Amino acid sequence: MTSRDRDPDGRPRSRRPRDAFGRPLPHGAEGVERVPDDYAPSAREAVSEARRLLGEGRPFHAHEVLEGRWKCAPRRERELWQGLAQICVGLTHLQRGNRRGASALFARGAERISGYGPPYAEVAVAARELGGLDDPDAEAAVARIRDLL
């Protein structure tokens, strides 16, 4: 039986390195830098860092940044950050060729953020449009969300 990596409180925490698309690599392999589990950015930092990572074509890592904000945000903002993180996971699925998973996450994320006003309403519209396309271009999709965020 394989044991799982756990943090000091016993919660599962994968220590495996990841590639630029967020896919786990074997232990000991060279991966890209990860977002720390305890990362708690301000709203401004989260958006800025997510945009930077999307600009590098790394939506999985942008999702980790937005998830960090979601975990520390005031209750009234949590749906926004969770929705943005889901849209970034949708972009990750698109990069990995999982069209069905991408579409589902775009829809869930768009639903969560649509009531937050500009620019998030525009991100929601774009995510819904991407989810409805038969064959969206992953690179163009990442750039579109980055530019709207």
List keywords for this structure.
single chain, 149 residues, mainly alpha, Hyaluronidase domain-like
Tell me what you see in this structure.
The chain is mostly helical. It has one domain: Hyaluronidase domain-like, CATH 1.10.3450. Helix content is 56%, strand content 0%. Helix 2 runs antiparallel to helix 3 and helix 5 packs antiparallel against helix 6. The radius of gyration is 15 Å and the shape is globular. The protein starts with 42 loop residues before the first helix and ends with a helix.
Kindly summarize this structure in a few lines.
The protein is 56% helix and 0% strand. It is mainly α and 149 residues long. The mean pLDDT is 89.
* Individual helix count: 6
| Mean pLDDT over the full residue set | 89
- In CATH, the architecture is Orthogonal Bundle
Class in CATH? Mainly Alpha
- Strand count, sense and closure of the main sheet? none
Q: What letter string, H or E per element, gives the SSE order?
A: HHHHHH
Strand content: under 5%
The CA-CA distance between the termini, in Å, is: 43 Å
Principal-axes shape call: globular
Question: Uncertain segments of ≥5 residues (pLDDT<50)?
Answer: none
CATH fold-level topology: Hyaluronidase domain-like
Give the helix proportion (percent range): 55-70%
Write the layout of secondary structure elements.
Blueprint: H1 43-55, H2 59-72, H3 78-95, H4 99-113, H5 120-132, H6 138-148
Helix pairs in contact: 1-2, 1-6, 2-3, 3-4, 3-6, 4-5, 5-6
